[in-house]
Fold these 3 entries.
Entry 1:
Amino acid sequence: MMSQMSNRHQIWTNLMIRTIDVLLFDDVNLLDVSGPVQAFGAAVIDARSQYTMRYVSPNGQPVRAACGLRIVADGQLSTRSNSDDLLIPGGKGVDAILKHASVQEVIQDRAAREGHGRLISVCSGALILAAAGVLDGRPATTHWSRSAETRQYENVLWDLDLISTSEERIFTSAGVTTGIDLALAIIRADCGPKVALAAARELVVQLRRTGGQSQYAIHLAGQFTRDDTLTRLIEQVVSQPQLDWSLNALSQAAGMNPRTLSRHFQRDLQESPAQFVERIRVDHARGLLFENLPFKQVAADSGFGDLQRMRRAFQRRFGVHVSEYLSSFG
């Protein structure tokens, strides 16, 4: 085992530095750019950065981000670039970029190249990949507010409830801070968990918020309920979904009778306590599935108790069995 770990360390420390072209355009979401590139910039081995960023715009000219900040590009987006990866952020300016034939040409050229070069989208940047046709037949996600636009690309396997997706060399993330999650996952794959953890600590973020978790963060609804008792109860369910959360157990934890508790859930969350618990458990299970854990362990750790109950819950939520869900989005 020590020999194997030593070999892995040797592989990671001998990595070639990867270069990433970062697409800039007017009205780009600045956090879609700064979040991932800051994560990549924090990936260091033996005092050497493992990624080099080059900022490009469609015409090589400066751009103005949606927040008003003016950004100077290093050069023009081009098929002649020899960088390893292309990162495509989102923002209001995506709508104009969708009409850029030259941008689509570059994306198609990169997708057709041999090797290990990646196409990485953040937020609505996935729509740019979809317009270029490189997401056809692939799982993908984007910001939930772009749901209507995704219907224009029927050949893409959209799941807007995911934080991120990856298949072969094409990666998408839900948007804004999830771009950091995706960058950390890529750093982990490229450089190993130690480097990824150091980068996460530098940014003061969680290392592994898995791609299977919900971008809607439904449990955050608990922060906006009308009473603190329900908020505390929701936080308990979210943090310990494996416990017994029957209606009686929930009522006892909240200090309410079952009828009153059910009325509070309907008032604040528009669902019954049982529906809420199942939703939390399904979301937890999705995250664990992306860790490649055995199905039975996922079912137990998520609070379903047995695999059959988890299968039925996935069928209710997504209309597919667990294995089908994982094959489409795993």
Entry 2:
Amino acid sequence: MTPHALLCTRDPFVIEAVQVCAAALQVDLRIVSDAAGLDSGWAGAAVRLLGADSATRWGPVRPGEAFVVGTSSEELTRCSAELGIPVIPLPDGAGHLATVISRAGQTTPQMGRIVALLGASGGLGVSTLVSAVALIGAKAGEDVVAVDLAPASGGIDLVVGAETSDGVRWPDLARSRGELGDLTSELPQVGGAAFLSHGRGDDPPPTDEATRVVLAALARSAALTLIDAGRGPVPVMADLSVLVVGADVRSVAAAQMAGPKVTGMVVRSGPGRRIPPEVVARTLGLELMGAVGHDKAVPRLAELGMPPVPGPARRLKRDASSLWRCLRDA
């Protein structure tokens, strides 16, 4: 299929502005104005542009790069807040529009999958689970990167005992722009997996643009990029978002109030968390992608500065392996 941009709107000003830009860049532009056209054209488009008049009318945004375009700053702000995707104001953002559309005319490299895990509540061990799945995937021969996007997490490198290892971390990339080359070889490596961690200084968090640029670079070189999203939000570029929910009333209640749209869920059981995973999934109306039990060996490994797998944490290894297979095949 020829690389192209998809525009969904009925606004004549937006249509004209995007048509002129696409024609100047010699990029194929396909315009739709209803839900059927949006659904059928979404997956095949290199870039999707949603008019503010229609952005929230036809349900949640599907996985893939997308932007809201329009002339009203109020409508753009509302759409961005509801959908969690960036905006391009017109006519002031014409330069940004040209940059976005130009990408649709480029040959798209093979991209790996980006999967985000986020916790419905605190203390569910999302960082440990992300690290374990990454290590298991690497042992299976896949190129896997674990990315720390959890605010105030302390650094995912601590989970795998790589806090003193050389390598690039978020403070080195927090203002990245444009397009980056292969980053995986520059990151700390443990067990064949690469880890992009927060720093532990007073450095500001990465900008939204830096996050997008870095995740795109990682997806070009890794088969799977696993994101520890903390309590959210989930990066727009994620192909799959998985909610980790404790098997207790409070965590289930928190999950019911969760804002981010998720694809499926993992249930975390243990002391004080005894609700059956199937009951949790049925209550939340989400696909059950895995269950992770309590493993007494994990805290001891953390104290010793050792990664959660491989080693004596057999239950975690078993549960994380099952989740790895589910994510691989999803």
Entry 3:
Amino acid sequence: MEEWMSELRKQMMSLHPTKRGRHIKLLSELYSCCQTYPLEPALDTCEIEVSSKMRAARGGFAGLWRGLFLGKHEVGMKAPHFYVPDETAQRRVQRETGVWRRLKHPHVLPFIGWHTLGLVSYMISPWMKHGDAVDYLQTNPTVDPLPLLVQVAEGLSYLHNFQPELVVHGDLTGRNILISHTGDALIADFGQSELVVEGEPTSSSNSASWYLSGNIRWKAPEIFEPETKQQGRRTKETDIFAFGRVMLQFFTRQVPFAHILNDRDDKLKTIARRGDFPERPCAADVVARGLDDGMWQLMTECWDVNPGHRPSADNILLRLSSALEARNNADHSQG
């Protein structure tokens, strides 16, 4: 299918811009059916446009704008902030797309392609109607976090078992998990990700600031304030630590250590450095969402200060799936 679509794109680009409408319509129909699109070459202005000048979201490195793909499909257009130096922006976009473009899984945000408009390079993905998991859970208090956590674990297991190079996400937080129009969770934002072969990353050209980035509320103690690049390198185990924090965030609807408001607070830095556990939440609404002994045990295993003692993504997926199945069976028998 992609080969056929690639040929259609070549035919379209050979036509005068005023005569490309039929090809655009056909490509749009094919994309609707298969949810895939040829990654080469970069998207042309006849295929993609910014539909709103207002930024829809903002992150530490990039902003997100809404766009229209093939005249019909809403997409997100992610681009570095204007004040990021051109060389840095280009390097980061290349690094992120180098990982992201390889991935295809129901719980990983799809990469459609990239587009350059003037001096700005955009990374294009489907628009996620419900935004990120943090906003979604806060505005929908009755949503059950366990099915979402199972989906995130499925996505993380896919990344950690990816072949021929496994993928370390590197920045797993509630803000980097998006919710589709169907209410499903998709892992997003691969700006801190790396491909790893036999325990060694495939790239060694990342800057010192790249190793220091990331929110300390989700950062494992072994990579906090590293003295060398190697000490700051993210791993599967640091992803697992962050997943445990995401579990806590989904159940409580709050960031880890929410009582410390400022991310730059020295108390928070001390906690992160030591790898201290957050206090177990006992509020009735949190317990009602499913934070029981089993869930808390899994979280604390994810936060073990010894990276080698943390469970694998496969193990987490198995335990969460079993918990969800057991609960569904109990609900069914009672019904």
